[in-house]
């Protein structure tokens, strides 16, 4: 039958995620694009693969059967790509990397320069995405590997199908309006309980991790502004609206005028690279992971070896 890997992957992800919108977000398509992929599969098989149940869609028995086989087909295809890469005398091929804004601005440019110097046959393409989506994007095959974040206060759930390699650690400080801390160089989290906080949504790993650290310090932060974008958060601090946690990488995203005060407690985030366990022996993936680790070793922060 005439079908493509992308069509089979859309079907597998639809069974896994339950909605066309969720599949589109994971694979980097539009919802209409996912619907077209499924429609093409139905045309190729001559069978209905989806059925409407109220406002939702579910896989039919035929859809479930094809999804089972599609997983094996995609796994075999990945093994073939891996074998072909190992048969070459040089590192060459194309990799799609998922990454979040900070990584796109601060890590990717250096990594791409190193790849051009050390592996000219390796083409690296990138896709910007929400940092909380990178794990699913790797698991689904939407990207080959991704740069992501992990938090000791709220570790990302581990999937045996994924490898998570820590590159380095960043310790959070506190960004505060100019002069608001009377020249103090260090502050305890508990001392911020009466301040207005600017923080990521409680639905995000970042937002939950910072809230967890505050609760461990004995208080519930007064979050009056839930903001995901780092540059917008820093602009609000600069305007004197409130305080927020920051790292060195975050500070480099936007030139701002505010004070940065050390936190007495250790609150960290870990920069990680994520890839499928089955891709660990792919020469291209291994080469890019090595490049990313080398780039991480040149940056300020706490080396991964100390984690």
Structural features:
307 residues, alpha/beta, Arc Repressor Mutant, subunit A, D-Maltodextrin-Binding Protein, domain 2, 3 domains, six-stranded mixed beta sheet, four-stranded mixed beta sheet, globular, disordered C terminus
Description:
With 307 residues, the chain is α/β, with parallel strands linked by helices. 42% of the residues lie in helices and 23% in strands. The protein has 11 helices and 14 strands. The chain has a 6-stranded mixed beta sheet with strand order 4-3-5-13-6-14, with helices on both faces. A 4-stranded mixed beta sheet has the order 8-12-7-11. A two-stranded antiparallel sheet has the order 1-2. Helix 1 packs across helix 3 (31-45). 36% of the residues are buried. Mean pLDDT is 87; it is low at 300-307.
């Amino acid at each position: 039958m005439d079908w493509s890997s992308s069509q089979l992957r859309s079907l597998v992800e639809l069974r896994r995620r339950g909605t066309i919108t969720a599949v589109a977000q994971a694979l980097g398509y539009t919802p209409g694009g996912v619907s077209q992929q499924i429609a093409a599969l139905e045309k190729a098989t001559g069978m209905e693969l989806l059925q409407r149940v109220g406002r939702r869609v579910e896989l039919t028995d035929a859809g479930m059967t094809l999804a089972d086989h599609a997983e094996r087909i995609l796994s075999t295809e990945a093994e073939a790509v891996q074998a072909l890469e190992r048969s070459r005398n040089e590192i060459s091929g194309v990799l799609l990397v998922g990454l979040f804004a900070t990584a796109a601005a601060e890590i990717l440019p250096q990594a791409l320069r190193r790849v051009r110097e050390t592996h000219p046959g390796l083409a690296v393409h990138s896709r910007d995405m929400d940092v909380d989506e990178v794990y699913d994007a790797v698991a689904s095959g939407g990207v080959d590997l991704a740069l992501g974040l992990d938090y000791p206060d709220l570790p990302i759930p581990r999937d045996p199908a994924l490898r998570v390699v820590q590159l380095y650690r960043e310790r959070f400080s506190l960004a505060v309006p100019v002069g608001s801390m009377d020249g103090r160089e260090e502050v305890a989290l508990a001392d911020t309980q009466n301040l207005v906080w600017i923080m990521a949504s409680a639905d995000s790993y970042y937002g939950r991790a910072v809230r967890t650290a505050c609760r461990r310090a004995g208080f519930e932060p007064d979050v009056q502004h839930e903001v995901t974008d780092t540059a917008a958060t820093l602009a609000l601090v600069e305007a004197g609206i409130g305080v927020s946690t920051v790292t060195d990488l975050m500070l480099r995203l936007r030139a701002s005028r505010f004070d940065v005060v050390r936190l007495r407690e250790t609150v960290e985030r870990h920069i990680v690279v994520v890839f499928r366990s089955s891709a660990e022996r792919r020469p291209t993936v291994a080469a890019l992971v090595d490049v990313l680790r080398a780039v991480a070793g040149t940056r300020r922060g706490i080396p991964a070896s100390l984690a």
